[in-house]
Amino acid sequence: MTTHGLTRPPRMRLADAAHQSLRLAIIEGKLGLGERLTEAHIAEELGMSRAPVREAIQRLAAEGLVLVEPHLGAQVLDLSLEDIVDLHNLRLGLETTALRLFLARGSSTKPLRTHLNEMKAAATKKDASRLINAELDWHRSINVGSGNHLIGRMFGELEGRILLATSLEDRVLRVMSSAGSGHSHLNYVVEEHEQIIAAIEEGRKAEALRLFEKHFLSTVALLLQRLGGDSSLLLEPLSETAPAPTN
User: Fold this and answer.
1) What is the pLDDT of residues 31-88, one digit of tens each?
2) What digits encode the pLDDT tens for the residues 195-210?
3) In 3D, which of 129, 19, 31 has the Cα closest to residue 76?
4) Helix (H), strand (E), coil (C) string for the chain
C-alpha cells in the first residue's frame, strides 16, 4: 500500500480530522492530481474507521477537490493544461467584475487586511499551504464585498479548482526559488495583494483594477511554460487593451 504521510490532527472530530488531513495532502501534492482515493487504505493510514473517511471524501467532493463517480469511486480532481487556461480566463472576467462592484459599493477593506495579515504570517513561516488558503479567503472577500450573489456562488463552485491550480503554481515557484530564479515567491504574493489593498484604500480605482488583473497573470504564465502549455491562450487584462476607467 502506498502511503502519503497522512497524519491525524489531535482533539478533533474524526471526520473533520480526515478532511483536514486529506485536504492538506491534496494542496501539498502528496495526493497527486487524478489519484484514486481508497477509503480502506486512507482509514488504515489515519488510524480510524472508513465511515469518517467516507464523510471527509464527500466534503472534499462538495468543495470541488475530489471527483466521485458511480462504480468508479473517488479520485483527486485532475487539471489539464487546458483546464488551467480556462480557469484563468474565467476568473479574470468574473473577479475583475467583482472588484469593480466592490469599488462601486465602497466595501470595507477590513476583511482583506485580516486575510493579508494571515498571508504575511504564513509567508514568514514559509507555510505555503496556509498562505494558499488565506489567499483564497482574500479573493472570496472581494466576491462577497461585490454584493453580487451569483458571483459568490460561481466562485464557490470554482474554489476546488482554484486551490489546485494555485498549489501547482506554488510548487513551480518553489522549484524556481531553489534554483535562484524565484526568490521569496511567498513574499511576492503578499506584496501583490498589499499593493491592491493600498490602491483601493487610497481611492486609486483604476490602479487597483490594473494591479488586480496583473496579479492573475503573474504566475499562471510561468506555470504553463514550465508544464509545456500555451500561454498565448491566456486573455490579456482589459487594462492592457482598453482605456482604464477614470478614478
Assistant:
1) 999 999 999 999 999 999 999 999 999 999 998 899 999 888 999 999 899 999 999 9
2) 999 999 999 999 999 9
3) 31
4) CCCCCCCCCCCCCHHHHHHHHHHHHHHCCCCCCCCEECHHHHHHHHCCCHHHHHHHHHHHHHCCCEEEECCCEEEECCCCHHHHHHHHHHHHHHHHHHHHHHHHHCCCCHHHHHHHHHHHHHHHCCCHHHHHHHHHHHHHHHHHHCCCHHHHHHHHHHHHHHHHHHHHHHHHHHHHHHCCCCCCHHHHHHHHHHHHHHHHHCCCHHHHHHHHHHHHHHHHHHHHHHHCCCHHHCCCCHHHHCCCCCC
pTM attached to this predicted model: 0.82
Joined grid coordinates for residue 96: 475583475
Q: Among residues of the chain, what percentage have pLDDT more than 70?
A: 88
Q: How far apart are the first and last CA of the chain?
A: 59
Sign of torsion over alpha carbons 6, 7, 9, 10: positive
